[in-house]
Amino acid sequence: MQRILQKTRSYCTVLKEVKKNQKIDKPKENKLNFTELKYPSKVPSKPIKQSFPTGEKPVIDNATIQLLERLALVNLESKEALSTLEKSIEFAEKISHIDTTNVLPLYTVLEDQNLYLREDSVTEGNCREDILRGAKVTEEDYFVSPPGNIPLQQKEKDFTDN
Amino acid sequence: MKRHLQLSIKQLSGFYADGSISPRTVVDHSLDDAIKLKRLNAFIRLSPEKALHQAKESDHRYENKEQLGVLDGVPIAIKDNFCTKELTTTCASRMLSNFVPPFNATVCERLANAGAVLIGKTNMDQFAMGSGTVDSIFGPSKNIWSNDLVDKWHIAGGSSGGSATAVAAGICYAAIGSDTGGSTRNPAAYCGVVGLKPTYGLISRHGLIPLVNSMDVPGIFARNVGDCLDVLNAIAGPDDRDSTTIRKPFRKIDMSFNEELDLRNVRIGIPKEYHCEGLSNEVLETWMKVADLLEDSGAHVHQVSLPNTSASIFVYSILNQCEVASNMARYDGIEYGHRAEIESSTEELYANTRAEGFNTVVKTRILTGNYFLLRKNYHKYFEKALRVRRLISEDFKRVFETPKNDENIVDVLLTPTTLTDAPLYNDFVSQSNRDQCAVQDFCTQPANMAGIPAISIPIRLSKRGLPIGLQLMSKSLNEEMLLRVAGWIEQQVEFDCLANEQIYAARS
Amino acid sequence: MYKKLLLSKSTSRGFSTQIQTAKTNLKNWKSVVGLEVHAQLLTDSKLFSGSSNEFGAPLNSAVSHFDASIPGTLPVLNRKCVEIGVKTAIALGCRVNEVSMFDRKHYFYADLPVGYQITQQRAALANDGELTFPVIVPGKKTYYKKARLLQLQLEQDSGKSLHDEELKRSLVDLNRAGAPLIELVFAPDLETGEEAASLVKELILILKSLRSCSCKMEEGALRVDANISIHRSGEPFGVRTEVKNIGSVRSISQAITFEIQRQFEVKLNGGVITNETRSWDATTRSTVPMRDKEVLQDYRFMPEPNLPPLRLNTSATDTSCSDIISVASISRGIPELPEDTRSNLIKKYQLSQDVAVILVNEAKLLQYFISIMEHVPGIPAKLVTNFLINDLLTFCNKRNVDIEDCQLSYIHLEDILSALHAGTINLQAGRELIEIIHENPSQKVQTLIKDHNLEQITDEKMIEQFCRQAIEQHEQAVKQYQSGKKKALFAIVGEVSKLSKQKANMKMVVAFLEKILKSE
Questions:
Q1: B370 at the C interface (CB within 8 A)?
Q2: What is the pLDDT of residue B468?
Q3: Is the pTM of this model over 0.95?
Q4: How far apart are CA B235 and CA B242, in angstroms?
Q5: What is the pLDDT of residues B11-60, one digit of tens each?
Q6: B246, A37: Cβ pair inside 8 Å?
Q7: Phi, psi dihedrals of residue B45, rounded to the nearest 5°
Q8: Which of C70, C78, C158 to mutate to test the interface with B (most CBs of B within 10 A)?
Q9: Is B60 left (phi over 0), alpha (psi -120 to 50) or beta?
Q10: Cα(B202)–Cα(A111) distance, rounded to whole angstroms?
Q11: How many CB atoms are closer than 10 A to CB B278?
Q12: Residue B228: which of B502, B444, B453 has the closest Cα?
């Protein structure tokens, strides 16, 4: 056993047997002195400040809120949520000043790879049980949904301070 | 201290082979530890029956000398956004709290085929949105290095905090997380373990419930670089079911540690922009020291510049929210997941299901993303972000491959992982989710933009006794170089992630 | 229900008189029609998943995890879909793009489980094609029309939802979700319903010969939506409406014609045409609004991140790279297209344009023609086409039988036409044979001619006899003929035909009568 343990990597600091109820010694002092450097550091000693201009504060009107809620089917529930949305947009504005003339969008880092094509054969499906199992409501092998094409009832949002 | 926990995966496997320990025993201990350390809240769900069954089978294999490889019988954990057949996969959300996938993610399949034993699914930020593992319906995960696990505890980091803290606490030997903007490296740094984000496309995402499809990568947690490599070798490689995997066949990396790495052939780059505002003195000191160590041992260390670094968080924020808006469109309650009671119309049902099933963070990102994707806004935000993304990616290409004029070409970049050691939970939650991410993800997120591999390794403990880690990055598919350099640093700093009072206190 | 029908019929009748007035008042107005066609591809599996693309599978059985939008599943593109898309694009004169990409088009609907459709919006498979096709309008000369094909793109089909009015819910079957479609977007180059129907007929011929699509509109394999607007000559295009739910080729012409007229009517009454979607109602033969209010829709297109760009080899020279599909080699595999078939027929057999169009429109008829021309040497093409079109096709139409299901074999028709050509039988006998064979397809023509006594009477003495008999019975007609009314002869000829039980050789009869009556 000892021989095997000796062959282990030096990373494993505790090589001796430790009894069950014995507390381990305090963590070893770092043998490295982190304040001592031998060479002039390549790490800049001061932070590199990069400023991003603060643009206009975005204004989201009620029409836009209603549109977003309908398109996303998620409700903007409170003043905080609206404020988060506005802040996120303000955040996003910060890249608008960056010069991207003649720079193409990078849709995927694999843009140079050819899209893999699958052979045309039936290899999946025939698993109706799997497919229906997760659904809370089914009816004789169908999924069930309420009638569609009824527009969402939307209320005007009042996030004023009253 | 349980003897077996001091071992690396290869050593453990060796002891299994010669009969000194059995997989069954080790897995038993693992499950035991998981229960004893419940207050860490590392796990959403344990899978004891499955684990013991797998352990038994592993036992048989070793007995008959038919072991599957170095991972056979090794306890591991998987983040709860990877689909596991017959085991709930919740993404820490109400929406999927009862979702049982009908298939296994490729990563899970490959690990099972290698004989690894799944202890359970780990906690995370809801739908992987966050960098603290504090936004989960199952409660936050705690950092095992905290002095106090009751009310003044530190966060585990996120969004794969559960996996990180589980490995740091010695409950399992390795764990799988996901990394979209630093979600593996961030908690790895906070919890003092190794966290690897491989090259985008090296590991299949089939079965990984996506956050940002163009940046997500399955991540690996382990206690040392060698273990990390063992897991990587088991799961990497193309998958026909994922069109974004790199088609080139994966050749397993073999790093026999008897070979000393000759640092004179290694060029290290220090990107100056990574010293940003908010970087703590201790992290800065750590960074400087390790750079110095490398230089002292013969490596060429140069300062380089990645000018578009600070734009990265803004780009990430836009792309993230747009993809979220799209990826979350499928949650309507009809085919799976939570379903609201209101049935007046499809739109009402969907809206209510989503209101009940998602937390505020998710909802706000969906709305913002939809705003950016509106026809009138598309070019201004989304497309603009993609252009800047290319600039960021080209920054890396320049330093790794095609430097301009008298710029230096480098093999590996050395930077901090996080700006500080793990914050206190109470401090962390006082900030908004977006601000938290913006600050914490500064150093990790550019690697996801470019799809390059990155690893965080623990270096030392801070004055408050919390781990500090550093990050290494390299060009695509250069994992071997990355791991070699990481392994070298690891040997120099001798950080023992299990030398932790909390673990003993919990076990006794 | 009946009352409703009555009401609508009377309204439409009143409507058509109004149309007449409308037409005269709106002489300077033009109508503009643009078509969007969706065609389901003939492949075994779906566009992005390996589940079956078969029509009519049991509920939710041809659905993979990906089709059901189970989280964590990813799309993988079917090679055959790309090949069919490229083949179709080439046949329609398009420029096939070397690089094309996929996008997500977002909207919520019960039959779209994932909340978006994967389609190609910004960089489609092919662009800038055109389709030139014959337009047959009864009573008018056949002419050729050209429509530009703006874009050809690959995209997913949605599932199907059944609306249960009683229980106020929809039942969803995802078998069709993810099935492969190509969408063909035509420029608004057409003007009438007939042109639109003709375009679709030509398109069907092409797609069928390429084996791209079954084109069975009744199964939804081919769907046509029409964008229609009107404007005053010289002014920009007017507001357009979209007409959906057109279930057959015939309906295309009807629906578009109706909509154009409806728009004229609105304009005539001083109204305004709104940009809306309307549905073709085949029962009331009218277009009705589909939604009460056109809701503002923003599809928030976004590139599909799980599918890197699709690359094709567009060079003329083949490279042996099997990874990428070669456009040139697909091009070589394209069969003869309908227009080429037509011009070849016209060239080879000196057929008229109209006849060539009809033959090519009915594949079976064309096959009959070719085989008869091959096996009956010296037979004039006109004789054959006349018989096939005027007699065989008419018979099938009358009996409501599809020409494809016609019971007459090639041999039967060859024998009939040989007999006609040889003068053994006359046209009337030929018609009778069609009827008889349709009931007893096992019989041989020669046998039937004998058994049913269908041989033509060519004996001069007998002809003379019949003629004289007829003359006696039609003194009035004789006088009229002799006084210059040439048409009066037909009455006498008709009598001869009756007397001879339609077996007299008409040519001889006419010649004889003319000779006799002139001399007398």
A1: yes
A2: 96
A3: no
A4: 14
A5: 999 999 999 999 999 999 999 999 999 999 999 999 999 999 999 999 99
A6: no
A7: -150, 130
A8: C70
A9: alpha
A10: 15
A11: 11
A12: B453
Nearest to A43 among B291, B321, B372 (CB): B291
A-B interface: how many C-beta pairs under 8 angstroms?
292
Active-site residues of B: which are they?
A: 79, 159, 183
C374 to each of B298, C381, C404, how far by Cα in Å?
89, 11, 21
Which of C114, C122, C172, C326 is most worth mutating to test chain A (most A CB atoms within 10 A of its CB)?
Answer: C172
Cβ contacts of A101 on chain B, cutoff 8 Å: none
The CATH T-level fold of domain C460-519 is: Arc Repressor Mutant, subunit A (1.10.10)
CB-CB contact of B204 with C306 (8 Å): no
Domain ranges of chain C: 27-303, 338-451, 460-519
Q: Which residue of B has its CA nearest to C110?
A: B346
pLDDT value of residue A7: 34
* Residue in C with minimal Cα distance to A66: C296
Residue C335 C-alpha, separation from nearest chain A C-alpha, in angstroms? 22
**Is residue A80 a part of any domain in this protein?**
yes
> Cβ contacts (< 8 Å) between C301 and chain B: which residues?
373, 375, 378
Could you tell me if B103 lies within 8 Å of chain C, comparing CB atoms?
A: yes
CA distance B41 to chain C (A): 25
* C298·B82 Cβ contact <8 A: no
Q: Number of folded domains in chain A? A: 1
Residue type, C230: I
Range of the domain at B54: 3-263+453-507
CA B465-B470-B471 angle, to 5 degrees, is 150
Alpha-carbon gap, residue A150 to C110, rounded angstroms: 12
Please name the amino acid found at residue C470: A
% helix / strand / coil in chain A, to the nearest 5? 25, 5, 70
Distance from C-alpha of B343 to C-alpha of A146, rounded to nearest angstrom:
6
In angstroms, what CA-CA distances link B59 with A114, B76, B234, B261?
Answer: 44, 16, 20, 36
Q: Is B364 close to A88, i.e. CB distance below 8 A?
A: yes
Q: Could you read off the pLDDT of B259-313 as tens digits, one per residue?
A: 677 888 899 999 999 999 999 999 999 999 999 999 999 999 999 999 999 999 9
Is A125 in CB contact (< 8 Å) with chain C? yes
Q: Is A47 on the interface with C (CB under 8 A)?
A: no
Q: Kindly state whether residue A106 falls inside one of the protein's structural domains.
A: no
Strand ranges inside B131-243, DSSP E: 174-179, 194-197, 217-222
- Tell me whether residue A87 is in a domain: yes
Chain A residues close to C101, C-beta within 8 Å:
107
Q: Determine the Cα–Cα distance for residues C224 and C212; give it in Å rounded to an integer.
A: 16
Q: Interface pTM (ipTM) of the complex?
A: 0.93
At residue C170, the 3 state secondary structure works out as strand
Q: Comparing C-alpha atoms, which of C214, C204, C200 is closest to residue C53?
A: C214
Please tell me the distance from the alpha carbon of residue C185 to that of residue B393, in angstroms, as a whole number.
37
DSSP string covering C129-154, please? EEEEEEE--TTS--EEEEEEEEEEEE
Contact C108 A73 (CB under 8 A): yes
Cβ atoms within 10 Å of B53's Cβ, excluding its own: 13
User: Helix, strand or coil for residue C345?
Assistant: helix
For chain B, the domain total comes to 1
* Contact between chains at B345 and A147 (C-beta distance less than 8 A): yes
Using CA coordinates, name the residue in chain A closest to B388: A100
Q: Which domain holds residue A76?
A: 53-95
Tokens of B370: 């939809």
> With an 8 Å Cβ cutoff, is B3 touching chain A?
yes
Instruction: Choose the mutation target among A73, A120, A152 for the interface with C, i.e. most C CBs under 10 Å.
Output: A120
